[in-house]
Amino acid sequence: MPPILLRPVRDTPEDAETVRLLAAAAFGDSHTLKGESPETPPDPERIARRHEKIRHFVRTDPAGSWLAEDGSGQAVGVAQSVIREGTWGLSLLVVLPAAQGKGVGTALLSRALEYGRGCLRGIICSSRHPAAVRTYRRAGFEVHPTIRMRGVVDRTRLDPPDGAAVEGSARDRDLMDSVDRRLRGGAHGPDHDYLLAHHRLVVADDLAGSAYCYVRDGGRVELLAATSRRMATRVLTSALLGLSEGVTAEIWDVTAEQQWAVDVGIAAGLELRAAGFVCYRGMRPPAPYIPSGAFL
């Protein structure tokens, strides 16, 4: 393979599309290897949203986004990483199938880790790909297997929330940042700009504690954090009951520390299966917490 050149991802439509296509190729190949159906080709709205997310990370962390190009200038891999108040996270690391096993991923991860060298804590949501998990473990991360839950919510089996959980807004940013600092040592800060624009937010805050949960339009839980299992159960239950009739709910990256989430998923009639891993360095697994693969 020709020599690899790493360069920063630029805040341009062209680079955003390059990153999107790299991710689509890598994740599509991953689905095939696991015997799963490939994702439905995205419509223009979904493509625009993915571009916006890619450029969000380029803008907030320009030194954390890197493209790998071969000698002919073809992009073969990309990494995007972020720093949020001393907590580093790997938002994306993909390599084209034809370039895998040739050191491209290792080079990209090294550059991303170099960006976060001053951070005490680190988080990665990993796929089941053996090479990826091996690389993260060698980089000093603890590896925690995860559960993925999926299905249409059975409302007749799911108990109603034990208290108020309401639609959130930008007014709840201080609450969410406070919960995040308590759980993961760093607030999500500017990531709420993107999350609030594209996701439904459920918030609970009373004498029993505080919690929030972002949910995608398609039914996937994007991010959840709470000060207690009771509050986490409340916002997750409310988020699931708030889905439109017939929508498929998905909850990813549920580690063994999140048994409260497993209980809610089982009560809702969701199917459980082993999935990937969440990797932590310099910190205990946050709980109650369901990370976002991109926003961590």
UniProtKB/TrEMBL annotation:
Keywords: Acyltransferase, Transferase. InterPro entries: Acyl_CoA_acyltransferase, Bact_Acetyltransf, GNAT_dom. Residues 4-159 form the N-acetyltransferase domain. Pfam families: Acetyltransf_1. It comes from the Bacteria. PANTHER family: AMINOALKYLPHOSPHONATE N-ACETYLTRANSFERASE-RELATED-RELATED (PTHR43877). This is N-acetyltransferase domain-containing protein. The lineage of its organism: Bacteria, Bacillati, Actinomycetota, Actinomycetes, Kitasatosporales.
